[in-house]
Amino acid sequence: MTGRLTITGGCCFDDHALVCLRQKVSLHVPGDAAGTDLPDTIPDAIKGRIRMLYPTRPPEGGTIRHFRSSRLIADCVAAAFGDAGLQAGDVEGSDTGFVSGSYYGCAEFLDTLRESLHRDGPRAIRPTDFSIATHGYPMAALGMAYRATGPSTAFLCGPASVTEALAFARTMLDSGLTRRMVVVGYELLGPQTRRHHARLSSGALTETVACLVLEGDRGQEGVPLPRYSRTVGDPARLGAAPLHALLSSLLSKMVTA
Amino acid sequence: MKGAGIVVTGIGAACLNAPDTPTLWQRLLDRDAGLKEGAHFDTAPFRCRRNTMADTARIRAVLTRRRPDIAQALPDQSSRALIHGLAAATEALAMTKALPRAMRVGLSIGTTSGSDFDRFCAGDSPDMDPALAMPHAVLFAMADSLSLTGPVSQISNACTSGAAAIVQGVGMLRAGRADAVLAGGVDQARPADFAGFNALRAMSPRDCRAFDAHRDGMIIGDGAALLLLETERSARARGANVLARLDGFGLTSDAYHSTRPQPEGLQRAIRQALAMSGSEAGAVGYVNCHGTGTPANDVVEAEAIAQVFDQPDDAPVISSTKTVTGHLLGTAAAIEAVITILALRHGLVPPMAHSDTPDPAIALPMALGRAVPLDRRSALSTTLGFGGSNACLMFTLPDTLEKVA
Question: B295: part of which helix (H) or strand (E)?
Fold first, then answer.
């Protein structure tokens, strides 16, 4: 029932560092990273490295409308697919699904809707904005980009978010509903979420996006998924912490070995 | 293994005019939607105002009678969703034999925005404890109030949240992480939901007429609904009364458009659930549909169902109980799962309210005007959500049925 799962690719970045698992990449951009934010797209130094390693990007346009979180997540997933040796066409169809975990989800984008409503009333809400104002939208947008029709959902359960997302991925794979699950952990904050977090904690935040490609044991080469229940990581990364810690630790072991 | 190996041993619900499942069932039979225009926020600025948002004070009173220890310990600032969720949970737990203290009971809920984060951001409650505004605050508060010792999980994936949360509960049991799981939906509607659905022109100014030729949109509401899930082995070992088996589930994506569903995705989800159950399509007598009452949803959903049940003798009766309950957002799939189980146990498909003139483009039999006998042992609950997500849950009566009184 609970077969062996392998990580066939993974990527993680914040504003100063990039980790890619299978390619054994660990890139650090000089500078003080503590408490910093990601810009609207991947930082240039990291972007350049990703493009060099993984030139394939997911198709855009059509029905996909990105906001900051969904774009950064899409970039991270594109790099993880590249890390796994997958082209965009390889993940089309029902064999690939997506799941995310975070504390605040897309609260950053929802902030803008909320502010519009508060300031200008109901008529300020545009239907196109409301239709993508769900925490699950970044995963749905990935499905649209790759035409991947497997399961897609989003977890918002604080420190349990990524653990539950990984457990969901396992359930999907064990049940045979799909063959590959992309698990994303991220934390990207807007002004309101940042204000809220500041009321709760004096600690700095490091915006981070991390993802791994998880597959059943079907002859794929990959890194066995370790026990993840104790993988907590740097609390400043909130929902992205467990995957960031997992990928960094695995890469460190691989490089050392 | 045939079927998911999971059974339902308790159900609970709390929504407008129905703080428990017996009242909910009666409302369905009476086609009593009880629509109102007021809410816990000012609805005056909105084009369409009619809604089915829960009467939280009434639900709290029921919770207080049922579990005064829990109700009296709640902080003054408790969110509406927390009260809805605790009412549904305590009903589900009271329905089964007392759970042994050593049992690890998990909690898996679906919600859209079931916390008070909006209230915090709006600055309406300057003294508000920021911890109570965290997106996962209701989840952990429910687990604390109920003294649950199993894993906790919260999904926020638009309208399919409740169904995915039930599937997550199944995963907790299968992986041995929990001995029982309360799984379903807990939600509270916000001004942003009213504004957004109005902007999409998806809300009806009068009522929800799902599958009707004259349908013009949905009615929004909120509330909670939870199922107590266990493995069949666990339920048998402790002699619990099994209400239904959860025999199969399906989860898929359209990968097409945020708000324009496609029949292929739901069709695959239904086929996944049927395949997991090991049953033929002819075993299914009823499909409790997502049935929002919007022109686009209903015709696509009916098309997907018709494609799966393509033999004349197989066609199940369809209905949308949103015509009575309204669309309860993250709770929608969960309350419809509860109603599907009630329908199986009563052997009746409750009639739709307001829907009296079936859309001629939809050929499936519908429950119109009066309840329809349900003599097959399995039923489905289907759900579609923003982003093109689809879900299907399949329930079957246990072999040894204990009828509802």
Answer: helix B295-308
